[in-house]
Amino acid sequence: MAAEHSPLEQFAITRLVELEVGGIDVSFTNSSAMMLTVICLITLFLSLSMRRHAMVPGRWQLMAELSYEFIAKTVRDTIGTEGKRFFPFVFTLFMFILFSNGLGLIPHSFTVTSHIIVTFALAAFIFLGVTLLGFVRHGFKFLTFFLPPGVPIFLAPLLVPIELISYLSRPVSLSVRLAANMLAGHTMLAVFAGFVVALGVFGVAPFIFIVLLYGLETLVAFLQAYVFAVLTCIYISDAIHLHH
Amino acid sequence: MPQMVIPDYAPQVVWLVITFVALYFAMAKFALPKIAHVLEERRKRIDANLERAGALKAEAEAAGRAYEETLAKARDAAHEALRQATQELSQEATKRTAAFDQSLGERTKAAETRIQEAREKAYGEIREIAIEVAEAATAKLIGGTVPKERIVQAIDSTREKKT
After folding, report:
1. ipTM of this predicted structure
2. pLDDT for B44-83, tens place per residue?
3. How many whole angstroms from its chain centre is CA A126?
4. Is residue A2 part of a domain?
5. Is the residue at A1 inside a domain?
6. pLDDT per residue over A124-145, tens digit each?
7. CA-CA-CA-CA torsion sign (B29, A94, A42, A58)
8. Does any CB of chain A come closer than 8 Å to the CB of residue B23?
9. Which of A98, A206, B13, B101 has a 20 to 30 Å separation from A74 between CA atoms?
10. How far apart are CA A62 and CA A59, in angstroms?
11. Which secondary-structure segment (H or E) carries A28?
């Protein structure tokens, strides 16, 4: 565990309600509370903004429609018409990560996606799902994914391991990218926030830096959610179309 | 580092699964179909309006074409009527000129005939008078009579020389 005023203190998991089911620790933690807040806010945002479902949308309805069309377009562009089946999943994924990242930026809140286990669980699920999808659609032909067509056969011993490693590293890169971005951003904010207090009057300099960094982190929060969604789309597309 | 506390992994994953699945169903069953429905309705409405606008435009164009056609037809008819009238009038004028020319010629001829007749008559009378004058003059001058045939002969020959 971190020291009392460590910049890493903000990531600490605290059990609000201790629970255990079948020998598994299912305690309701601050992370669980944040996840619940995230899904409630998303549901409230989408249902309240679409409540009047006007022909000419208002501001809130427009935001809901824009987020829908933004992800719909991403899915359509990367997967094609077959991507329609995966749209609800990609949309849920994007909104969950976006709201987790966004809410985590509120001071003294908790960032669900800063924990590697959370992002890894998502990435692993996507990885397993995509691999399963590939085998269901193409059978054992899916294994040819590791040997692109038109490659001379004598290169196979070299190329297949490379492709395999790059395929297996997908969940790692996917999860580490998101978690590391969140972790680094929030740690930096905490470190410079400590400087503001420590430097007294001269704390204005790190304070200005924090304001700027906060803007950058807002961008990163959105960007990482988008990157996660887009990469998921690309993986699904790979499994469906095998070779482009 | 809190991210590395293994005992904290289980509750996080369990709650992630619970909340994510709940959110997935909320999105897939309620929120997304509703937004899709609204977007679809709007797209349909826009398409219908565009279609109607296209139909109206075609209609307006057809009306414009019909108007142009009618206008062209009317112009042609006017041209035709004008041409016919001009032709008729010129024919009438030619006819009347010809008739006038004819009557003028006839009258001129008649007048000429009358003049000729008058002249011939006048010449005849002059001959008679000349003969009588010559008869009388010879009688007075010579005191004898000269046969009438010679006098007539002399006068006619003189007249022929003059003319």
Report:
1. 0.90
2. 999 999 999 999 999 999 999 999 999 999 999 999 999 9
3. 11
4. no
5. no
6. 999 999 999 999 999 888 888 8
7. negative
8. yes
9. B13
10. 5
11. strand A28-29
Task: Look at residue B135 and tell me whether its pLDDT is greater than 90.
Answer: no
Give chain A's domain count. Answer: 1
| CB atoms near residue A36 (< 10 Å) | 16
A100, with CB counted inside 10 A (0-12, 13-18, 19+), is buried
Residue A32 lies in a domain: yes
Residue B34 sits at the chain A interface (C-beta within 8 Å): yes
DSSP string, A6-24: -TTGGG---EEE--EETTE
Q: Which residues of A touch B31 (CB under 8 A)?
A: 43, 46-47, 50
* Nearest one of A98, A127, A111, A108 to A179, comparing CA atoms: A111
Q: A218 lies in which domain range?
A: 9-241
Chain B: nearest CA to A5, how far in angstroms?
13
pLDDT at A244: 57
**φ and ψ at B144, to 5 degrees?**
-120, 170
Q: Is there a domain that residue A114 lies in?
A: yes
Which residue, chain included where needed, has tokens 């009588």? B132
Give the A window 168-227 contacts with B, CB below 8 Å: 179, 183
Q: Tell whether B72 lies on the interface with A, counting CB pairs under 8 A.
A: no
Q: What is the pLDDT of residues A42-100, one digit of tens each?
A: 999 999 998 887 888 889 999 999 999 999 999 999 999 888 999 999 999 999 999 99
Determine the Cα–Cα distance for residues A122 and B20; give it in Å rounded to an integer.
9
